[in-house]
Specification:
The chain contains 15 helices and 20 strands. By secondary structure, it is an alpha/beta fold. The strands form 4 sheets. It has a 9-stranded mixed β-sheet, sandwiched between helices. Strands 14-13-12-15-16 form a 5-stranded parallel β-sheet, with helices on both faces. Strands 17, 18, 19 and 20 form a 4-stranded mixed β-sheet that branches. The two termini are 41 Å apart. The structure holds xanthosine-5'-monophosphate.
Length: 523
């Protein structure tokens, strides 16, 4: 349990609950999201939050059996902020009334999308800095609405379809709003959280410097004088985890870098020189190119490629880890979004689009205990921690790279020749992006080499070479993405450079598919 002041977010299944946590972390407030089912009286007593936020959610409080927080939350004596469903559940439990509203017909009170809230004539602490222009834009997404306030509550803001858009019981510091302050479309929403945590007495003690010191102390306590193995992929998460653990326990850490021969140009050398030479971290460079490419020979199905790579990765990792005598711990770069238990209303498992490989199952198989020093962090916080640890910005800001590497950027059969061409083309493309100052505006960019040869003419001769596709997307989390709007000049210049500089490619295309319906990678 963290020593920092902490806030509890009770999740009722909103799509945007994680954004609440992001907004709070940006304010240097430590918070945890817990699904409402887990928040029992005992949990609350042990967690002892300094404030509580109820998220939105898709259910209706008017339905029997719909989610509720335990009544004891109202007796903790700490400020509570209810959002959307969270507002409604608070009203219902404290003696108000909520009614259903239909989206169409029947005089419904549903509101979806942008709305404007105007203030009542009395100020409210959480609205400091609001209404300077007489009204505030907010984002609404509700079918039901509060039709009678609970005793002790008053109205502090209204919108055309939500007469109780902002309500509060200022005696008890209970605040309940119908809109979503955490989303981008409530432009001043952050101010609401800022005011709320200030009122609750948070001092903003969640800084990366403090986190780093705590994390180092915790690793030392957990590991003692035992040895730790860390799988290094060259990605940001495992790298930050490795450097942090090394700072905590020095040479008790050994990193295993499984090189499957599917990395980008010079990537393996860069990883090895950075960790072994620059950071002096004991590193096993397992160059298993032959093994991986051998097993992938003739394989063109994307899922089979992933399964082969995943299986071999575990075998190789295990083989080298066994060489490290007395290792008792395995370090993993697990992040907070992987840890948050989500509230599922559909019940059934979601469809697997792509099976991402990881070292799941490995700790049990090898009888190792886990060290996961990034478990409480979001991706951008991992980057901040990396900076705190002195990792270069150019490294921390790198685009994500998939575990199976170039195997899934080489649709169809993988050959050494194609990999070689792909590496060169990708290096030219990324160089172009960097030269034009676009790298940080793009979430991920890469080249895929296509399994077709096309006819071209260069000089006076006919060519019959590979076609490639350039991909560049903007995204927040990789779940959805849009293609990056390069200028025609940029595309033209890049195509010319690739064709001139990379032997084996005579045609360049740009992929303008968004996700969905496409995926970011080609396989
Ligand atoms: P897709 O292609 O599913 O990619 O839109 C979303 C993000 O995930 C990465 N990706 C993978 N990462 N193993 C990984 O570790 C995989 O098998 C894998 N497939 C896709 C992809 O690069 C993008 O960032």
């Amino acid at each position: 349990m963290t020593q920092h002041q902490h806030l509890l977010i009770i999740d009722f299944g909103s799509q945007v609950t994680q954004l609440i946590a992001r907004r709070l972390r940006e304010l240097n407030v430590y918070c945890e999201i817990h699904p409402y089912q887990n928040v029992t009286d005992a949990f609350l007593a042990e967690f002892a939050p300094k404030a509580v936020i109820f998220s939105g959610g898709p259910d209706s409080v008017t339905r029997d059996g719909s989610p509720r927080p335990p009544e004891s939350v109202y007796k903790l004596g700490v400020p509570i902020l209810g959002i959307c469903y969270g507002q409604q559940v608070m009203m219902q439990q404290l003696g108000g009334m909520v009614e259903g509203g239909k989206i169409t017909g029947g005089g419904g009170t549903a509101e979806f999308g942008r709305a404007f809230v105007t203030p009542a004539d009395k100020p409210l602490a959480i609205l400091d800095g609001w209404f300077s222009e007489g009204r505030e834009q907010v984002w609404m997404s509700h079918g039901d609405h509060v039709s009678r306030l609970a005793p002790g509550f008053e109205v502090f803001g209204t919108s055309p379809n939500a007469p109780y858009a902002i309500t509060a019981d200022t005696e008890r510091n209970f605040f309940a709003v119908q809109f979503h302050p955490e989303v981008h479309h409530t432009p001043n929403g952050k101010k609401v959280y800022e005011n709320f945590v200030k009122l609750a007495g948070f001092t903003g003690d969640w800084t990366m410097g403090a986190y780093k010191d705590d994390a180092i102390a915790r690793i030392r306590e957990q590991v003692g004088d035992k040895k730790v193995i860390c799988g290094l992929s060259g990605g940001v998460d495992s790298s930050v985890a490795a450097v942090l653990i090394h700072e905590a326990i020095g040479d008790q850490l050994t990193c295993v870098f499984v090189d499957h021969g599917l990395l980008r140009l010079n990537e393996a050398d860069e990883v090895v020189s950075m960790f072994r030479d620059h950071y002096n971290i004991p590193l096993i460079h397992a160059d298993e190119t032959e093994l991986f490419l051998g097993e992938l020979d003739g394989v063109s199905d994307p899922e089979t490629k992933r399964k082969i790579i995943g299986r071999l990765f575990i075998d190789v990792f295990q083989k080298h880890a066994n060489e490290i005598e007395g290792a008792e711990f395995l370090a993993q770069g697990t992040l907070y979004p992987d840890v948050i238990e989500s509230v599922s209303f559909s019940g059934g498992p979601s469809v697997t689009i792509k099976s991402h490989h990881n070292v799941g199952g490995l700790p049990e198989k090898m009888g190792l205990k886990l060290v996961e020093p990034l478990r409480e962090l979001f991706k951008d916080e991992v980057r901040a921690l990396g900076r705190e640890l002195g990792l270069p910005d150019s490294f921390i800001g790198r685009h994500p790279f998939p575990g199976p590497g170039l195997a899934i950027r080489c649709p169809g059969e993988i050959t050494r020749e194609k990999l070689e061409i792909l590496r060169k083309a990708d290096a030219v493309y990324i160089d172009q992006i960097r030269k034009h100052g676009l790298y940080d505006d793009i979430w991920q960019a890469f080249v895929a080499i296509l399994p077709v040869r096309t006819v071209g003419v260069m000089g006076d001769g006919r060519t019959y070479d590979y076609a490639c596709a350039l991909r560049a997307v903007t995204s927040v989390d990789g779940m959805t993405a849009d293609y990056f709007p390069f200028s025609h000049d940029f595309l033209g210049e890049t195509a010319t450079r690739i064709i001139n500089e990379v032997q084996g490619i005579n045609r360049v295309t740009y992929d303008i598919t968004s996700k969905p319906p496409g995926t970011i990678e080609w396989e």
